[in-house]
UniProtKB/TrEMBL annotation:
PANTHER family: AMINOGLYCOSIDE PHOSPHOTRANSFERASE DOMAIN-CONTAINING PROTEIN, HYDROLASE, PUTATIVE (AFU_ORTHOLOGUE AFUA_1G12880)-RELATED. InterPro entries: ACAD10-like, ACAD10_11_N, Aminoglycoside_PTrfase, Kinase-like_dom_sf. Residues 34-252 form the Aminoglycoside phosphotransferase domain. Gene3D superfamilies: 3.90.1200.10, Phosphorylase Kinase, domain 1. This is Phosphotransferase family protein. Keywords: Transferase. One of its GO terms (molecular function) is transferase activity. Pfam families: APH.
């Protein structure tokens, strides 16, 4: 079994002292249990706290765990309206600790992993949702040429590209036959909308991939940019709406069955209207396709997480095994959206 829980702090400290201005060791490291893809560590050092994200060691699916892309996009966004952590240094020499990694600032803030946002007032809860909408719109309004990201994703239809990519990755990590997933893989390519936009997309935009100020609703940083690319903005929006259809609680992290009005949480329709207003849009037709795609892609991602757990190189093996059992639920949700 390949160990993703430990970090060679001496090797990291030696490399950072040689490659990062002002850095001084030694390092103590604490692994975060948040996230399933790229192991993340808080580094405490004499020169302050930092965060390190690395590729998992071991054999990986092609194009997955692209920490170099995470580093590039967040560096490019430093002077935009999108809040991101400051990037310090990228190491692309796997001989240092066994895989590529980068180091960024440790942003102070609170991480919210429950979209019901307990223990705050309705007014603050509504303000947090408004901020989520503002930041999502800001991501999609980034001038990709001005920030040097026009080549951050290939040309061609985003959904055609993504469906092909995630179908291949799903098949590469498939552990059992799921009829609903097979049906989605057939339905999606035949129903791609004729609306090929090119915008920066985050790829996994949701409340638990954000840090908020400790004493207010403002977003301090958007995290986890591994799946970001140049693509279709409605994929991000649909991914968020898809997540809210999941059961509430630590695993589902959704809003299914929740009385949103009583908590000050907008409905899907209200959130889409807020988003359209922020971007100057009159509406978004064909939302069923985008939501079906979001379910499909998340199912494929979780299948990969599950396969890594079986292979022994998941970031959080216990949670990965639990998540893997939910792939049929995502497949069924996608098929329901497709026909709804």
């Amino acid at each position: 079994m390949t160990d993703t829980q430990q970090l060679d702090t001496d090797a990291v400290a030696n490399w950072l002292e040689a490659n990062m201005d002002g850095f001084q060791g030694p390092i103590t490291a604490e692994k975060s249990n948040v996230g399933q893809s790229n192991p993340t560590f808080r580094l405490d050092t004499p020169t302050g706290p930092y965060v390190l994200r690395r590729k998992p060691p071991g054999q990986l699916l092609k194009s997955a765990h692209a920490v170099d892309r995470e580093f590039r996009v967040q560096s490019a966004l430093a002077e935009t309206d999108v809040p991101v952590a400051k990037m310090h240094v990228l190491c692309e020499d796997p001989d240092v600790i066994g895989s590529d990694f980068y180091v960024m600032e440790a942003v102070a803030g609170r991480n919210i992993d429950d979209p019901r946002i307990p223990d705050v007032s309705n007014e603050e809860r509504a303000a947090i949702y408004a901020e989520m909408c503002r930041v999502l719109a800001a991501i999609h309004e980034v001038d990709i040429e001005a920030v040097g990201l026009s080549d951050y994703g290939p040309l061609g239809n985003y959904f055609e590209r993504q469906i092909g990519r995630w179908t291949k990755q799903y098949r590469a990590s498939e552990t059992e036959s799921i009829a609903d997933m097979d049906a989605l893989i057939d339905w999606l390519p035949a129903n791609i909308p004729d609306d090929d936009q090119r915008r920066l997309v985050h790829g996994d935009y949701r409340i638990d991939n954000m840090l908020f100020e400790t004493d207010g609703p403002r977003c301090a940083a958007v995290l986890d940019w591994e799946l970001s690319t140049i693509g279709h903005p409605y994929a991000d929006l649909a991914s968020l709406l898809m997540q809210w259809q999941m059961p509430p609680g630590a695993e589902g992290r959704g809003l299914a069955g929740v009385d949103r009005a009583s908590l000050g949480i907008p409905t899907d329709e209200e959130f889409v209207a807020m988003y359209c207003k922020a971007r100057g849009l009159t509406g978004i037709p064909g939302m069923n396709f985008y939501i079906a795609f979001a379910f499909f892609r998340m199912g494929a991602i979780i299948q990969g997480v599950y396969k890594r757990a079986l292979d022994g190189n998941a970031s959080n093996p216990e949670r990965a095994m639990r998540l893997g059992k939910a792939v049929p639920q995502f497949a069924a949700g996608g098929l329901k959206a497709a026909h709804g």
